[in-house]
C-alpha cells in the first residue's frame, strides 16, 4: 500500500499549464488556491509565459526547489512528458494530480496514454491522482487543489468520489447547508492512486471521523479490505456504489472504461467490513448531512416530539417497519413531568404530540424535560407551520437545546413559512430534514452500523501457505481442468469433508465383489461431462443388480465415456448447494443456498467472504430465509448447522491453500433433521 | 352515497363563532375568506357581538336568507345546538364544516358530543365535514374556507387529508414550489362526510385530474371501492396510508380514536383499484409535484441527458432495478444527428452525456433534436454546476423546450450555484428534483399505474342474493358455529368444490362394510376441536384394519369426542392453503398461499378482493413467489392453475351468498403435476 501522507499536505505546489488568462483552467486553479488562503509556495509552469512573465517557469526542472505536489492541467498527450520531467528533476517530484481528461475514458489512444502514466508511476515510484479528476481539497490547510471554487469549510467527514461532477454537486450542496469536510478527493480514472490508497491514508487522518465514497468499481479488492478492516468499528464508512445493474455497468463502461464487477460479492464484502452501503444519492447526502451536526447515536430508541399527528404517525410507521431502531419507551415519571406542560388533549406517549396550537414555549419546556431524562437518545422535533406556530422561535430554542441534546435533529415541514427558520437552523448546524422518514432512515443505518461495530469484527489475517497438491499436479499435467471423483474425494478428505460412499466401475464385472446397497444411482465420472443431468449421464432409483447392468449398458451408449460411479440413493431431505469461486477483485468467495428448484426461484443464498470463522459463518447463515427451518421451526427438529458451517470453513481453507482451484461445486448437500448425518451427493472441483 | 356537489361551491357562507378580534380563530376565518377573493355572501354569527355590531347575527336562524354553508369554530359542546338551529332555520341549512376540536379525539365526553353530530346529520339529512378539521379550499372560486392562510393557486390535483397539520405543511410547501390544487379538503374526524363521499364528488369534478389522499383509516370499504371503481384508469389516485404498522396504528388511535385495520387487505384493495400507494411523505409530495407540471407519461422508456457521468449512472441503475420503466433505445439516425453537436468524447448512448464542459447551447441543441424525434417520452435533464456550466441559461432553455417536451423534467444538483436557476425553473413550472432517483421513482409509479389502467378493470357489480342454507340454519339452531365434515362437504358440493373421500364412524363396527383404502388417516369430526394437530385429534399412516382399530381406541381416549373420519392418505404434492374471511371494512376477502411450514416462513400468499373473475384470479396468483413452480419450472410439468382459481372463485360465491359464514379454511389443498387431480384434505366452515 502506498504511503501518501505528504500528498494531501504539500508545502509547495507547481501548477503545470498555469495561465494568466481568466477563465482558462490553468488560471482557475491558481485562483482557487489563492482564494482558499493556502500558505505554501506556489510555482507556475507554462513555457508560453516563461519568457514574458517572471513568475512563470518553462519547465518543472527549472524550479530547482522542492515541489511537494504538481497539479497538471495540460492536454493529455503532454502529461507523460511532464511527469517524466518532474520525476527526473532535482529535487525529484513525487506527487502529481492529473486533472486533464482525454485518457482511458476517451478511447484507444487515451488508453495508451494512460498506460504510460501507470508505467511512469511504477518506474519512478510516484503517486499520481487521476487522470480525469477534479483534484482534492484539504480545508484544514485552506487548500483548494481543484478547479471548482467554493466550499473549504472544515468538517469531520472525508469525501472520496470516482465522479468529479458528483463531487462538484456535493460541494455546492454542502455550501448551502453549512456542511464542512475534512478532505475531498476526486480519484478520477484511478490509474495509480485508487480508493484503497486514499482510504489507507484517511483512516489514519486524525481530522477525518467518517468517510463517504462514491465508487463505480473497486480496483483492488484485497487492498480495499485491508485498508478498512478494523477501522469501520471506529469510523463510519459510507459507500454509494454505482453500477449495481447491468445497464448501470454499461453506462459506467461507456464513460470511464471500468469493467463490470459482481455486485452480490461487493455487497457481501461491504457487509463484512460493516460499511454503510447506501443505494441512492439522497441517502448518501442525508448521512453526510446528519453526521455534520450529530454524532453516531449511542442509542437506537428514538423520541419524537411533534405538533402534527400525521407526520408523527408516519415516523412511527417507519420505526415499526425497521429491525434496527425502536420508539423510546417513556418512563412514568417522565410522562408525569411532561404532562404538566401539555394541554389535556396532548399525548404524553411517544410520539409526544404538543398539538397544533403549540407555541415555542411548549417546545422549549418539552425539550428541557427530555434533556434532563434522555440526553443521549436520538430526538426528532417535528414542526408544521400552523396558526400559532412560530417556526423561527422554535428554531432558536432548538439551537440552544442542541448543546444538551447532541442527537437532536428536526423536521420543519413546509416552504414559505419555515424559510427563515431554516436559515437559523442551518446557521446553527442543526440538521433539518424535509420529512421524518429521511432522518429516521439515516438513524436506522447508523444504528445498524453501531450494532455491527460492537460485535467482534473477526478479521483473521493469518495467511495460508499455498502449495500444489499432488492430485492437482497430476490433473494439470494431464491437461485436465476437472478432477475425477476419487481425486475430489481424496482432496476433500484432507479437509475433513466427506462425500457419499461410491463404487467406481468401468464394467459390470468390476462390481462383482463389491457391496452395493440398493436402490442406487449410476453416474459418469468423467471430467468432460460437467452437467450430468443435461447429458443424461445419471440414472436414479436402480433397484437391483439386473437393473444396474441394464443401466450401465444404457449410460455407456448415451455418454460414450468409460468411468462410472455407483452410489446409494439418499433419503429425501433438505437440499443445500455450497460452492466456491474466485472473484477477480476479491479472491475466493463461498456461497451457500437452498438447493434444487427453489434456489433459482427464491434466490435464498448467502455469500461468505474469507477469512472466515465458524461463528461468523453461522451468523451469516442466519440471514438465509430458510434459516428458521434449519434451526428447527415450530417444534420441529433442527438440522446440524455446525456441520454446514464446517464445510464452508473447510472450502475456504481449500481455496486459500490451493490457488490452482478455480471453482468448487457441492450440489447437493442433503441434510436431515432426524439425526442422520448430511451427505454430499455430488461435488466438482475445477482448476484454472 | 351523499350528493355534496353544492358543498364545495357555496354562494353564501355563515361563520359561526366569527370574531372582530384579530388572532381569534373566528377572525382568521373571516380574513382568509376575504383575502382569498371569494365573491359570495358572507354572514357573521356570534351572539356576543350581535348587539354592538350590525354585521353580526346572534343566531343562524336570524339570517332568514339562504346559507349554503356554515363554518363553525366554537367550543365543542355548543356545536350540536348550532347545527340544530341551522337545520331548523328557514331556509334550512344543509352543509356544515365543523372546525372545532374536542370531539372523539379528546376522550369519552368528546365521543358523546360527536355521536350527537352524527345523529343530527342523519335526522336532518345534513352534510357535515369534520369535526376537528382544517376546512377546505376551492381555488377556482377563490374560496379559502380554512384557518390557514396562503396558497389558493389553481391546479389539477385535489388533496384529501385526514391530518389537518399535514395539509398545512403541504400547502406551505406547495406555495414555495408554485404548485396549485383543484381542491384541498381536510376531513378531520369523518363523523359524517368521509373519504368516500369526498372522492365520489371529486371523481366527477371537472377541475380535478388527479387525487392525492392522506388516510389514517378507511371508514366505509364498499363506499370507497364504489367511488373509485372505474375511475382510476382515467385519473391517478395517490394514497399515503398511515398506520401500516402496529405501533403506527397505536399512534393513530391515541390521536384520532380510529381503529386499527388490516393493512394487507387495504393494500390488496388499493392494487385492485389501481391506486398509486406510496409509503412515505416524500413519495407523496414528489408525485404531486411531478403531476403539477407533467402529464402522466405516455411512454415508459426514459431518455436521460446529463453533464455528469455519476448521476447518469445512478439514474441508469434505478431504471435497471425497475420492472416498470426502461432506458429508451436510441435510433441510429438520432445518434448520428446528436453526435454532430457533441464533442468526440461525449456519449450518444442513453444516458446522453453532454460532458462536464457543456455550455447552454449544447443542452439546447440536444433538447431540440430530442423534441423532434422523441417528443412524447419522459425526458430527464441532469445538471451539475461545473466550471463552464451556466445553470440559469440552461433553466431558461428548459423552460422554452418544455412546450415541445411535455414530460421534460430536470435535476439541477447542488445548492448555491443553482439557486437562481431553481427560481427560474419554479416560475416556469418545470419540475426539478434534487436527484435523478426521485423523479424516476415518480415516473415508475405512474408507468405502472398507466399499464394497469390499460388492462381491463374487471369490476363486476352484479350482487349475489344472500340466502340461508338449510345446513347453516340447522347448525345455528343447534348453536354450533362450526360445521361438521358432511355439512361442509354438502355445502361445498353445491359450489362444485370437492373434498377428499372419507368414511364417517363412531365405532369400529361402523366400518365393517365400508371400503377403506390403506394407508389411511383417522381424525375427529367435532366442531369443538378446530385445531386437530394441537389436540392430537389426528392419526396418520394407518396401514391396516388392526392398526385402525387401535388408532380409534386411542383417539377416543385422548379427545373424548364421538364422531370420526377415515380418509385415504394423500400422496405428497405441493400444499396450498385457501381461506375466506370477512373484513369489517371491506367484506369478504380470499387468501391463497403456499402451505405447510413454508407459509409462515415465506409469507408467500395472495389476497383476492371480490368481485372476482377467473382471469383476475389467475393474474393475481402470478404474484405468488411459487408461481413459476405452479406454471412449470425449467421443463418440469405445471399444476392445474385453473382448478385453483375455480376454488377461489367459488369460495367468493359462497361468501357472497351465505352471509352467516364468517370464515372458511381449506388447509391443505394438495396439488400435483403428474396429472393427478388436486385434493382438499381438510376444510372448515365457521359461522358468525
Structure report:
- The structure is a homodimer of 688-residue chains.
- Chain A is an alpha/beta fold and 688 residues long.
- Chain A folds into four domains: 12-290, 3-Layer(aba) Sandwich (Rossmann fold); 295-454, Rossmann fold (3-Layer(aba) Sandwich); 501-569, Dna Ligase, domain 1, CATH 3.30.1490; 574-687, 2-Layer Sandwich (D-amino Acid Aminotransferase, Chain A, domain 1).
- In chain A, strands 8-7-10-9-11-12-13 form a seven-stranded mixed beta sheet, with helices on both faces. In chain A, strands 3-2-1-4-5-6 form a six-stranded parallel beta sheet, with helices on both faces. In chain A, strands 23, 24, 25, 26, 27 and 28 form a six-stranded antiparallel beta sheet that branches.
- Chain A is flat.
- The mean pLDDT of chain A is 93.
- At the A-B interface, helix 5, helix 8, helix 10, helix 11 and helix 16 of A face helix 5, helix 8, helix 10, helix 11 and helix 16 of B.
Write the layout of secondary structure elements.
The structure is a homodimer of 688-residue chains.
Chain A: E1 12-16, H1 25-36, E2 41-45, H2 47-50, E3 56-57, E4 69-72, H3 76-88, E5 95-98, H4 108-124, E6 127-129, E7 135-138, E8 143-146, E9 154-161, H5 164-177, E10 181-186, H6 195-202, E11 210-215, H7 221-228, E12 237-241, H8 246-256, H9 263-272, E13 276-278, H10 281-293, E14 301-306, H11 309-321, E15 326-327, H12 332-339, E16 352-353, H13 360-373, E17 379-383, H14 391-401, E18 408-412, H15 419-427, H16 436-454, H17 470-477, H18 485-494, E19 503-505, E20 520-524, E21 538-542, H19 545-559, E22 564-568, E23 574-583, E24 587-594, H20 597-602, E25 605-608, H21 614-621, H22 627-631, H23 641-657, E26 661-671, E27 679-680, E28 683-687
Parallel strand pairs in A: 1-2, 1-4, 2-3, 4-5, 5-6, 9-10, 9-11, 11-12, 12-13, 14-15, 14-16, 14-17, 17-18
Antiparallel strand pairs in A: 7-8, 7-10, 19-22, 20-21, 20-22, 23-24, 23-26, 24-25, 26-27, 26-28
Helix pairs in contact in A: 3-4, 6-7, 10-16, 11-16, 13-14, 14-15, 21-23
Amino acid at each position: 500500500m502506498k504511503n501518501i501522507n505528504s500528498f494531501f499536505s504539500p508545502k509547495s505546489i507547481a501548477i503545470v499549464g498555469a495561465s494568466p488568462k481568466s477563465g482558462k483552467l490553468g488560471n482557475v486553479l491558481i485562483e482557487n488556491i489563492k482564494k482558499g488562503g493556502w500558505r505554501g509556495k506556489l510555482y507556475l509552469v507554462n513555457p508560453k509565459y516563461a519568457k514574458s512573465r517572471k513568475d512563470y517557469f518553462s519547465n518543472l526542472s527549472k524550479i530547482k526547489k522542492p515541489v511537494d505536489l504538481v497539479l497538471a492541467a495540460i492536454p493529455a498527450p503532454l502529461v507523460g512528458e511532464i511527469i517524466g520531467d518532474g520525476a527526473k528533476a532535482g529535487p525529484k517530484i513525487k506527487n502529481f494530480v492529473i486533472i486533464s481528461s482525454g485518457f482511458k475514458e476517451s478511447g484507444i489512444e487515451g488508453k495508451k496514454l494512460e498506460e504510460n502514466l501507470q508505467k511512469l508511476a511504477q518506474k519512478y515510484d510516484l503517486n499520481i491522482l487521476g487522470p480525469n479528476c477534479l483534484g482534492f481539497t484539504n480545508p484544514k490547510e485552506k487548500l483548494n487543489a481543484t478547479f471548482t471554487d467554493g466550499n473549504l469549510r472544515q468538517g469531520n467527514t472525508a469525501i472520496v468520489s470516482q465522479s468529479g461532477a458528483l463531487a462538484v454537486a456535493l460541494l455546492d450542496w454542502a455550501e448551502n447547508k453549512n456542511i464542512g469536510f475534512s478532505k475531498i478527493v476526486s480519484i478520477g480514472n484511478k490509474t495509480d492512486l485508487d480508493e484503497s490508497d486514499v482510504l489507507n491514508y484517511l483512516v489514519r487522518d486524525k481530522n477525518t471521523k467518517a468517510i463517504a465514497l462514491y465508487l463505480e468499481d473497486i480496483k483492488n479488492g484485497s487492498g480495499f479490505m485491508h485498508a478498512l478492516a478494523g477501522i469501520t468499528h471506529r469510523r463510519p464508512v459510507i459507500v454509494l456504489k454505482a453500477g449495481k445493474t447491468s445497464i448501470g455497468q454499461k453506462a459506467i463502461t461507456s464513460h470511464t472504461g471500468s469493467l463490470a464487477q459482481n455486485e452480490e460479492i461487493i455487497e457481501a464484502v461491504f457487509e463484512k467490513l460493516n460499511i454503510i452501503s447506501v443505494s441512492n444519492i439522497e441517502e448518501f447526502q442525508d448521512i453526510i448531512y446528519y453526521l455534520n451536526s450529530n454524532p453516531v447515536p449511542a442509542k437506537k430508541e428514538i423520541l419524537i416530539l411533534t405538533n402534527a399527528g400525521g407526520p408523527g404517525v408516519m415516523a412511527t410507521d417507519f420505526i415499526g417497519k425497521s429491525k434496527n431502531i425502536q420508539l423510546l419507551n417513556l418512563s412514568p415519571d417522565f410522562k408525569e413531568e411532561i404532562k404538566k406542560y401539555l394541554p389535556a388533549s396532548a399525548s404524553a406517549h411517544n410520539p409526544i404530540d404538543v398539538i397544533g396550537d403549540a407555541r415555542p414555549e411548549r417546545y422549549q419546556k418539552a425539550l428541557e424535560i427530555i434533556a434532563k431524562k434522555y440526553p443521549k437518545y436520538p430526538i426528532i422535533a417535528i414542526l408544521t407551520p400552523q396558526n400559532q406556530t412560530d417556526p423561527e422561535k422554535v428554531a432558536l430554542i432548538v439551537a440552544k437545546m442542541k448543546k444538551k441534546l447532541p442527537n437532536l435533529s428536526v423536521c420543519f415541514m413546509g416552504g414559505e413559512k419555515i424559510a427563515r427558520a431554516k436559515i437559523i437552523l442551518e446557521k446553527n448546524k442543526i440538521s433539518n430534514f424535509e420529512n421524518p422518514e429521511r432522518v429516521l432512515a439515516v438513524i436506522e443505518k447508523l444504528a445498524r452500523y453501531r450494532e455491527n461495530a460492537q460485535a467482534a469484527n473477526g478479521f483473521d489475517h493469518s495467511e495460508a501457505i499455498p502449495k500444489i497438491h499432488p492430485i492437482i499436479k497430476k490433473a494439470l499435467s494431464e491437461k485436465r481442468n476437472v478432477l475425477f471423483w476419487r481425486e475430489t474425494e481424496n482432496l476433500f478428505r484432507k479437509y475433513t469433508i466427506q462425500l457419499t460412499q461410491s463404487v467406481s466401475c468401468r464394467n459390470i464385472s468390476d462390481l462383482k465383489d463389491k457391496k452395493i446397497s440398493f436402490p442406487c444411482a449410476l453416474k459418469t465420472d468423467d471430467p468432460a461431462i460437467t452437467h450430468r443431468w443435461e447429458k443424461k449421464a445419471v440414472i436414479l432409483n436402480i433397484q437391483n443388480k439386473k437393473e444396474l447392468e441394464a443401466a450401465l449398458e444404457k449410460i455407456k451408449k448415451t455418454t460414450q465415456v468409460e468411468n462410472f460411479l455407483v452410489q446409494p440413493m439418499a433419503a429425501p431431505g433438505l437440499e443445500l448447494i455450497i460452492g466456491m469461486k474466485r472473484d477477480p477483485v476479491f479472491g475466493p468467495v463461498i456461497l451457500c443456498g437452498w438447493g434444487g428448484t427453489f434456489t433459482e426461484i427464491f434466490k435464498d443464498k448467502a455469500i461468505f467472504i474469507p477469512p472466515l470463522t465458524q461463528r461468523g459463518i453461522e451468523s451469516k447463515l442466519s440471514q438465509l430465509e430458510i434459516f428458521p427451518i434449519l434451526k428447527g421451526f415450530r417444534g420441529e427438529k433442527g438440522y446440524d448447522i455446525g456441520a454446514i458451517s464446517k464445510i464452508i470453513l473447510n472450502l475456504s481453507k481449500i481455496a486459500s491453500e490451493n490457488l490452482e482451484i478455480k471453482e468448487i461445486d457441492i450440489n447437493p448437500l442433503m441434510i436431515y433433521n432426524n439425526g442422520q448425518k448430511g451427505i454430499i451427493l455430488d461435488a466438482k472441483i475445477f482448476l484454472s
